[in-house]
Structures are given as structure tokens and as C-alpha cells.
Amino acid sequence: MIEVRNLTHIYSEGLPHESVALDDVSFRIEDGSFTGIIGHTGSGKSTLLQHLNGLLKPTSGTIVIDGTDITDSHTRMLDIRKKVGLVFQYPEYQLFEETVAKDVAFGPANLGLGQEEIEERVRQSISLVGLDYEAIKDTSPFELSGGQKRRVAIAGVLAMKPEVLVLDEPTAGLNPKAHYDILDMVQEIHERENNITIFVSHNMNDIARMSDRVLVIDKGHLAMNGTPQEVFSREEELKAMGLALPDATEIVSQLRKEGMNLPADCLTVEQAAGAILTALGR
Q: Strands of 34-38's sheet, edge to edge?
């Protein structure tokens, strides 16, 4: 479980250009859950993510993961890295080794593991992201396609065996097929590993389809925290924050305003299509 309590972060505190990025944010994420985070650009999402694996320390507040207060000055960074894996936006830009296997091995090697354990983790992680270990292990990561590079970068985080996997816009910049391939891979990893997955995206369709809960960050505050149905039912509030609805929810909302008798909680195209056919008596 993750417990974030009264988290505040102020950049350049005490200086003329200080900026409050997070203001008294509190929430819980249950073990095994898939949590989506949405918010307008500059809302504080990335600052929040960087606190979850200790890259940033809060101005005030605490973060407890599986009983460990990762904001405590006595907590070792190595212990945090074992618990929380963070995949940045465009993670393929962080690839640097001469082969795929060496790149994926970098993280577990820094945990001080034995060579046999490292090799087993590399093999498992590459397979887990849907790549053929034998075919790709000796290939330069720079010879791969964009989607394959991203899979290798994610494999490098998975090789650390994190209890929490944090993904910041994992499909940014990918073509539609690679986009959905990465999402399917993330869903499969979550189901197989039964870890906490935290997923940041500007794509409301992806958030609605994949998340158990959705956190909405607005100007450094936690504005909403609920199921996708609960959050996306608050249309006017979301639009006031500059956020959109999932496409299916938007279509259903417009049809409801025109008088069609439809449920308000349609999140996917399949749900909307079924509801529309039922309303039309088909």
C-alpha cells in the first residue's frame, strides 16, 4: 500500500520566484491496484511522480510505501529503488549500453546481485515485455524500432522487481499500433506481477479503460479521487480544469443533452455502442 500524507513541494522556497507545485496532497493506493493520474500540463503530476521514488524530497509531508517512510532522511535510496520503479516519458532516450542485455542488466547489477541472478532477471524481464530474449539480447538497442526501444527501457525497470511501477506517459510519441501494444503489455505485466501500477496519461480513453481509480491533480491540489465512473461523471468540473472526457463518454453526454435516454457512466466505445443500441430498441 502507498500512503501519501499532506505532501507539499515548493520549488525555490523563500526566493522571489518560488512556486508551489504540490499543496497538501493526501491519498492512499491499495496493493494490486491500477491507478491513473490526470491533470493539465503544469498541474504537478510529474513532481508527484518524482516524490514516489525519492528523486525529490517534499517540503513537508510523508510518503509511506509498504510500511517504509521513503521521505525519512534515514531511508536508503537503494531501498526506495527496490520498491518503486519509475519509467520516465521517452525512456528510450536513457538507453546507453552496447547491447540490450547489458542495458537491462544495469539496474539489477547496481543492486549488488550475483551474476546468475542478474542474468535470470534480464531474461525474465525481456520476455515479460514481449521480446524474444535470444533474438534480441546481443542487439544494439539503437538498432531497434521506437516501440521496441521503449519495451527494452521498461524491461530495465522491471528487472529491479519493483513492488510499484510508475509510468509517466508510456505511449507518448508512438504510432497507434505501438501505442496499443505498449498498453496491452502494461496491462499484462500488471496482471502477472500483481503490483501497484501508477499510470500518467493525457489520453482519457486509456485512463478510463485501464484504471481502477483515477486521481485528478489541478494546480498542485488533489481535485478528485475516485473510480473512473465517479471522476468522469463530473464533466463540468473536469472541463473547467482544461481536461477532456473519454471519447465515448463525451458522445453519450451530448446524446443525453439531446434527450436520448442513456446511462451516464459509459466509458468505452463498447459500452456506449451497447447503450445506444438498447435505447434504439435494437
A: 84-87, 164-168, 196-200, 34-38, 213-218, 221-226
Burial class (CB in 10 A: 0-12, 13-18, 19+), 25: buried
Which ranges of the chain does DSSP label H, i.e. alpha helix?
45-52, 77-83, 100-110, 115-128, 133-136, 146-158, 176-193, 204-210, 228-232, 235-240, 247-257, 269-279
DSSP string, 27-45: EEE-TT-EEEEE--TTSSH
DSSP label of 57: -
Overall average pLDDT of the 239-258 stretch: 95
**How many other CB atoms are found less than 10 A from the CB of residue 23?**
16
pLDDT at 202: 93
Q: Are 35 and 27 in contact (CB under 8 A)?
A: no
Tracing cell 436520448 back to the chain, one arrives at 260
The pLDDT, as a whole number, for residue 276 is 93
Q: What is the pLDDT of residue 25?
A: 98
What structural domains does the chain harbor? 2-245 (3.40.50.300)
Neighbouring CB atoms inside 10 A of 174's CB total 17
**Per the structure block, which three cell numbers stand in for 130?**
514481449
- What does the DSSP assignment read for 225-268? EE-HHHHHT-HHHHHHTT-PPPHHHHHHHHHHHTT----TT--S
| Helix H or strand E segment including 11 | strand 2-11
Mean per-residue pLDDT, 207-223: 97
